Amino acid sequence: MKKFPKVELSKDGSSKVTLTRRGVNKMKKEKLFFLAVMVTVAGFISGLVAVPGVLAKEKIKIGGIVDLTGPTNVIGVPFADGAADYFDKINKEGGINGRLIDYFPIDYQYKLPQAMAAYKRLVSQQNVIAVVGWGTGDCKARIPLVNRDKTVQFTGGFALDQTEPFTPYNFCHMISYMHQVIGMLEYAKAHPKEKGRKVRVAFVYSDAEYGRAPVRNIKKRNIVDEMGFELVDNEIISQRATEAVSQALTLKKAKPDYTVVILTSKPASVFLKDAKKVGVDTTFMGFSFLGDYGLLKLLGDVAKGLMVAAPCSYGHENNVPGIQKIWDYNKKYHPDRKVIELQYVYGWLYGMVMEEGLKRAGDNITGEGLKNALETITDFKTGGIAPPLTFSSKDHRGSYKLKLSIAKPEKGTFESFTDWIEVAK
Q1: What's the mean per-residue pLDDT of the chain?
Q2: Which of 21, 58, 230, 253 is the one with CA 20 to 30 A from 67?
Q3: Domain count, the chain
Q4: What are 81-99's pLDDT values in tens digits?
Q5: Rounded average pLDDT over 402-411
Q6: How many Å apart are CA 366 and CA 351, to the nearest integer?
């Protein structure tokens, strides 16, 4: 079982790290400390003798602020694993320009105070040059801090607000939630349920920021009206919901042709089961985080007909060269891993992007050096994991493309039925 440290807040608001998923037992560390020091010194001396004048380069320090035990941990853990495994892969292959990665992931339990304390610790004590974030809300809250500290932040939340308005140190590799919704609405418009009238749509979304943000941005831009739809309902679901019968009944009365669902797997399973129970007749279309194999296990046949916006390839698509490389690594180092979740792919992909940026940064291993290097990436190929990614000094979102996929609960997977679709900025 992999172990990560998590942050805890003391009564005075300071933070400390305890061990959860990746780490070592503190007591064992203390017992072995003396031996480790002696081995390290011996190795260092022998290294100097073997290669006169050559010293190991300073490690590249990167932080992670991830959800391992909070309400989004079902998808948060695979994301964290994907990033951590790619950094491990880098180290096993000798590092980047002679430097190894020192990765410091902290479990913030999807709580904003812990997230901010974790960031403070990573910057002040570990001197990280970059952080891999998770939640939409906490990543957004850190934007002023990463700009001040010149620390690159890779956000696990894909909301438009992460890159618009533009800020110098926040990066996102995937298409925004708002653009995902637009892509799904374009499909709905091209496939009306009844000719001679507007297509009727509804939104069902989380009370967390990842759900509110895309709906807010869609309303702000008047997208529904401009695309010629009739908006018939909006339903908000708690991130910790255990039932959603009232929302399902209201949605049933509204009679939407298509319903866009912006929920992670736990609340999505609650809502979709209740919608089935009360007899809602609509085509459900989910944003990217519904592309979760675990959701299919929770839903069973209820998942039939569910469409999902996929910003990258799924983990079961072994015909994709980049996905096959993920499996090659895991078969060698994690042979017990039988499933590669979509969220794992997101995390792995961030490792790929960071590796490319660090290679381009050369010896300028600072937050500013990494930022400048990332802004030179154009049409970065990922072996088919994602569409070619491009960043610039004016736009830090790597992609505006998606594929549409449909749930296949009998297989426990999703199948893409389009090629990459580009959504206008």
Answers
A1: 89
A2: 58
A3: 2
A4: 999 999 999 999 999 999 9
A5: 97
A6: 17
Structure tokens at 378: 């154009």
Dist. CA 75–CA 294, nearest whole Å: 9
Say whether both 199 and 211 belong to one domain: yes
User: What b/e string do you get for 218-227 counting C-beta neighbours within 10 Å, with b at 16 or more?
Assistant: beeeebbeeb
CA angle 388, 389, 395 (to 5 degrees): 145
Q: What is the mean pLDDT of residues 312-317?
A: 97
Nearest to 275 by CA among 249, 253, 295: 249
Asked if residues 354 and 348 have their Cβ atoms less than 8 Å apart, the reply is: no
**C-alpha to C-alpha distance for 174 and 172, rounded to whole angstroms:** 6
139 and 278 share one domain: no
Span of 13-22, 211-220, 275-284, 288-297 with lowest mean pLDDT: 13-22
Tokens of 412: 């426990």
62 and 129 Cβ atoms separated by less than 8 Å: yes
**Range of 215's domain?**
177-310+403-422
In this structure, the answer to whether residues 113 and 26 fall within a common structural domain is yes
Q: Where are the alpha helices (DSSP H) in 51-154?
A: 73-92, 112-124, 136-141, 143-149
CATH number of domain containing 51: 3.40.50.2300
